Amino acid sequence: MNAVGDEVEVVVAHQERATVRIGDVFLKIDADQGRTDVEVEAMAIAPIPTPQVLWRKPPVLALAALPGVALGRLGQASSASPAAWSAAGAAARELHDAPLPPWTSTSLAERASRPDAQCAWLLANDVLPADLVRRNRQLAERALRPSKPVFMHGDLQVCHIFVDGDEVTGVLDWSEAGRGDAMFDLAILTLGHREHLDDVVVGYGADDVDVDVIRAHWSLRCLTAVRWLVEHGFDPTSPGCEVDVLKAQM
């Protein structure tokens, strides 16, 4: 890494962790070394491209930057081609077809316990209209059905997938990886970008996609994320972000 003349770009920063970029190196700072352990192991066994680990000195993990650009950003229109979105779907499929990782992840019972408490907070604090919360809570129920576990990325946001033209060059941020629901990954990938859902399904394989469950995960994700975002200094009401997704579900 050549630090001379390189600017420090803050990629994300909040009370739990931060990621900065200096030149061609990402520095991830996380006090929870359990998350970093998961990230390093997941990248080592994932069958799709991941960043090269340059070094690790807790609480810092240094990763080489991926070539290309992010597939998109939540709240912004994606400039990536339909073929690039299909390639992202194909990468997700390759991951889901891989052997399960040796560690467990959040159980269905734990996930099922979250939305009611989060919805109660949203209503008690007048954060969102009651009809919006209740309707999306109804839609979210379908996402809580039992599913066959797969090797799940766990946070497959569009900004974590890098593409060069129509090819995926790598996937970032594996700290939430584990055994989980394949439709959850596809939902996070298409959150706020429903216009590209068909492209992702083409790449993934339509026969193994339940679009209704993906849409249910959109509601579940947004309902359970709004409080965290507010409390950590982010704005879920920004155009195209979580609150707009909830409204579109109506």
UniProtKB/TrEMBL annotation:
Superkingdom classification of source: Bacteria
Pfam families given in the database record: APH
InterPro entries: Aminoglycoside_PTrfase (IPR002575), Kinase-like_dom_sf (IPR011009)
Keyword entries, A-Z: Transferase
Single GO MF annotation: transferase activity
Aminoglycoside phosphotransferase domain boundaries: 44-207
Gene3D superfamilies: 3.90.1200.10
Protein name, as recorded: Aminoglycoside phosphotransferase
Organismal lineage: Bacteria, Bacillati, Actinomycetota, Actinomycetes, Micrococcales
